[in-house]
């Protein structure tokens, strides 16, 4: 009889914020070095969680953010500026989503705003 995986275990695979990747694996996935990941951490673009042993762990969301910063750095943007650009892009996207939600709510007052 096969054993079932507890539901909370499979949920982690679908969670973009679950810190599933070690520094080495994360660097490999986005085609950079651990030093780059430390640098974007020092710039406070991403803050990796720490394992019980103190090792950095990254989520898929954090890797997407770091990969965007890497694109900018590869184009010649200084790392601090790249991190600031990525933060501003992220804030702009959140504002756009909020704006769209509010527009829909204004067009149809019977819909909840999701706040």
Describe this structure in words.
The protein has 115 residues and is mainly alpha-helical. It has one domain (16-107): Orthogonal Bundle (Multidrug-efflux Transporter Regulator, Chain: A, Domain 2). 60% of the residues lie in helices and 6% in strands. Strands 1-3-2 form a 3-stranded antiparallel sheet. Strand 2 and strand 3 form a beta hairpin. Helix 4 (60-74) packs across helix 5. It is globular. The mean pLDDT is 87.
- From the N-terminal CA to the C-terminal CA, the straight-line distance is 45 Å
**Overall radius of gyration:** 18 Å
For this structure, the CATH topology is Multidrug-efflux Transporter Regulator, Chain: A, Domain 2
Q: Strand share of the residues?
A: 5-15%
Regarding CATH, which class? Answer: Mainly Alpha
Q: Which architecture does the CATH hierarchy give at level 2?
A: Orthogonal Bundle
Structural class: mainly alpha
The main sheet orders its strands as 1-3-2
User: What letter string, H or E per element, gives the SSE order?
Assistant: HEHHEEHH
Largest sheet geometry: 3 strands, antiparallel
Q: What is the averaged pLDDT score?
A: 87
Give me the number of helical elements: 5
- Counted up, domains total 1
Pfam family, one: MerR_1
Protein name: Helix-turn-helix domain-containing protein
Domain HTH merR-type: 20-88
Organism: Streptomyces endophytica
What does this entry show, briefly?
The chain has 115 residues and is mainly α. It has helices spanning 7-14, 23-30, 34-42, 60-74, 79-107; strands at residues 21-22, 49-50, 56-58.
């Amino acid at each position: 009889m096969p054993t079932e995986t507890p539901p909370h275990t499979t949920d982690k695979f679908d969670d973009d914020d679950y810190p599933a990747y070690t520094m080495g694996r994360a660097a490999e996935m986005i085609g950079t070095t651990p030093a780059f990941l430390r640098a974007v951490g020092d710039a406070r673009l991403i803050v990796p969680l720490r394992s019980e042993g103190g090792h950095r762990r990254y989520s898929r969301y954090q890797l997407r953010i770091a990969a965007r910063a890497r694109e900018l750095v590869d184009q010649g943007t200084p790392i601090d500026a790249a991190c600031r650009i990525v933060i501003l892009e992220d804030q702009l996207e959140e504002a756009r989503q909020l704006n769209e939600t509010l527009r829909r709510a204004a067009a149809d007052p019977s819909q909840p705003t999701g706040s």
